[in-house]
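Dear Dr. H.,

I hope your travels went smoothly. While you were away I took the liberty of generating a structure for the chain from your last submission, since the lab meeting agenda had it listed for discussion. I wanted you to have the full record in hand beforehand rather than looking at slides cold. The sequence, exactly as received, is reproduced here:
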Amino acid sequence: MLLGFGAPFLAATLVAMPAAAAIRAHRRQALRRELAPIPRERLAAVLVPLRDDPSPDTRMIVAPLIRDLLAEGLEMAPAEGMAGSGDEVAAAAGLMVDG
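The corresponding predicted structure, in token form, is as follows:
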């Protein structure tokens, strides 16, 4: 009895999960096109509160949009080069430094 129920359930799950992911991806692409002309400040006001939406589908659609549309200008610049050679601590501690 349980074996007869398990196979159709597994088959339905194997079809439903990828279908849901495909629908989310399609909707995310459509939203990205619609949201692209909106200024970043307004986008943030709309998208950021949806990160905490009770619907997991909403969160899965919004997270990449936030990352892609609001990430511009958030890249970090590399740090300036250090002035030392790396053995200053050893010299200050009185240890022998070769070189």
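Two observations you may find useful: The two ends are 79 Å apart (CA to CA). Residues 8-72 form one domain.

With kind regards,
E. W.
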